[in-house]
Amino acid sequence: MTSLTAFWFWMTPQSPKPSCHDVITGTWRPSAADTAAGRVPGYGVITNIINGGIECGKGSNPQVEDRIGFYKRYCDILGVGYGNNLDCYNQRPFA
Q1: How far is 64 from 88, CA to CA, in rounded Å?
Q2: What SS3 state is found at 90?
Q3: Does 2 score more than 60 pLDDT?
Q4: Which of 24, 50, 57, 92 could serve as 37's disulfide partner, Cβ 3.0–4.6 Å?
Q5: Which residue ranges does the record assign to the Glycoside hydrolase family 19 catalytic domain (predicted)?
Q6: What is the model's pLDDT at position 35?
Q7: What per-residue confidence (pLDDT) applies to 55?
Q8: Is 64 helix (H, G, I), strand (E, B) or coil?
Q9: Are 9 and 1 a contacting pair, CB within 8 Å?
Q10: 11 in the Ramachandran plot: left (φ > 0), alpha (ψ -120 to 50) or beta?
């Protein structure tokens, strides 16, 4: 993926998925359907946007655990909080 493609993917909502940017900046608000599917604000929704069909709604997963670890490491380096809902273990993937 080129850097421009990655930037586009990060910034662009792909219905019914919000953009990763809107999730991480806190501007995304889940619909009633999202909430019912366990998709609530937090880093886990970003995993759901990127790899939901493969990694989400299936319980604990080593790939998700690794990604959460990397996320926490960079949050620590940047001196920012992790936020809530870091995993997507109990989220249904976006349709």
Answers
A1: 8
A2: coil
A3: yes
A4: 92
A5: 5-88
A6: 97
A7: 92
A8: helix
A9: yes
A10: alpha
Give 1's pLDDT tier (boundaries 50, 70, 90). Answer: low
In this structure, what are the phi and psi dihedrals at residue 86, rounded to the nearest 5 degrees? -80, -20
Structure tokens, 16: 């019914």
HSE toward the beta carbon, residue 20, CA cutoff 13 A: 15
pLDDT at 34: 97
41-58 per-position pLDDT tens digit = 999 999 999 999 999 999
pTM of full prediction above 0.85: yes
Measured distance CA(39)–CA(80) in Å, rounded: 22
- Hey, what are 8's tokens? 């586009």
* Whole-number Cα distances in Å, 45 to 9, 26, 29, 39: 14, 11, 11, 6
Distance CA 68, CA 47 (A): 9
For the chain, which residues make up each domain, given as ranges? 3-78
